[in-house]
Amino acid sequence: MGMKVGINLEFVRHDDKSFAWGLAKAAELGYKYCEPMVHWGRELMSEAGYFHSVSLLEDPLEIKAMLDKHGLKASGLSAHCPLAQPEISVEYLKQAIRFAAEMGAPVVNTDEGVVPEWLQKDEERAYAIMEYTLRKVLPVAERHGVKIGLEPHQIFTRYTEKLIRIANLVKSPAIGFNVDTGNAYLGGVSDPYEMLEATASRMVHIHAKDISVAHSAEERGKVTGTPVGCACGEGVIDWHRVVRILKKAKFNGVLSVECGTIPQAAASLKYLKKVIREEKA
């Protein structure tokens, strides 16, 4: 199968267009895989066709038909909700998993936060609460054959050892990693390539996010992540090194590009395909 390149629909966010428009644009650019972002309930801008997120109240088979129309497959769902807030995340993730299974998405991506301020000061309790969330959610993922991709995106997961600790809170074949290269880099406390090496054997999905030199200078070490990056190959991330690490681990999943504009999406696809061809296992 080999490693593949996909696109997170964040690339059309600033164009104020719909989910359907984003799918058509991704296919037009040459992408074969995409990562829809889902939300719970109804959201005004999405309903009006001005935002790319899709509601979990929709029929997942209809969403699959929309993908099929454009020759696209879902690499996963962007279903971020706070593991540290189970009153939100348990039912949200369970519904996202069932939705993913019906529409044929193999992965649901999420992270630990935003972690409530009072819980940030009691890390051991935070792990206990996240374990509760995972124990409620992972059996659903196992039954439906969907993986949970844990992403570095908040205060704990910017540390490689804490990212792995959360994934190990519950022993389950359904939990793995969705390392976001840009978030890992911006976190500023763990080397992003060492994070990849430490998690590669359980990688289920990748957010291929590059960070511009200016963005790096402004925010590295001050934030835990960012919504989108620049075009892959135009920033600070060493993509040849990233691909070598993943190929060594026999990762055959999707590098889901997270960038902010249509031209960046086009450039990223061309660049990452070139890197994948050039790097031998």
Describe the structure.
Helices cover 45% and strands 16% of the residues. The protein has 12 helices and 11 strands. The model has no long low-confidence stretch (mean pLDDT 96). Helix 8 packs across helix 9. By secondary structure, it is α/β, with parallel strands linked by helices. A 9-stranded parallel beta sheet has the order 5-2-1-11-10-9-8-7-6. It has a single domain, classed as Alpha-Beta Barrel (TIM Barrel).
User: DSSP strand (E) fraction?
Assistant: 15-25%
The top level CATH class name: Alpha Beta
Shape: globular
CATH fold name: TIM Barrel
Straight-line N-to-C gap: 13 Å
Q: How much helicity do the residues have? A: 40-55%
Would you tell me the structural class of the helices and strands?
alpha/beta
Q: What's the arrangement of secondary structure elements?
A:
Layout: E1 4-8, H1 19-29, E2 33-35, E3 38-39, H2 44-47, E4 54-55, H3 60-69, E5 73-74, E6 77-82, H4 86-103, E7 107-111, H5 117-120, H6 123-144, E8 147-150, H7 160-167, E9 175-180, H8 181-187, H9 192-199, E10 203-208, H10 213-219, H11 239-248, E11 254-257, H12 262-278
Parallel strand pairs: 1-2, 1-11, 2-5, 3-4, 6-7, 7-8, 8-9, 9-10, 10-11
Helix pairs in contact: 3-4, 4-6, 8-9
Attribute tags:
TIM Barrel; single chain; globular; alpha/beta; 281 residues; 45% helix; two-stranded parallel sheet
